[in-house]
Amino acid sequence: xxxxxxxVSDALVTxxxxxxxxxxxxxxxxxxxxxxxxxxxxxxxxxxDIDYNTVAETARQKAWEKFKVENAILFQP
Length: 77
Prior knowledge:
Helix content: over 70%
């Protein structure tokens, strides 16, 4: 991981604080990384003629079934 330094106006630092600004930039970078991973995943699916919606629906169904098993007490009358 690389550390970078950026210039931030004194007004922003005064208004939000250094820690809040650091956390915001960190979250933005994490979201960007996730976006790039999703983009790569989508491209890989397309290159292999795999329908994303089918994959997503299958994953959703499996997750729902797993949730129901692990939380069966919630579904009892």
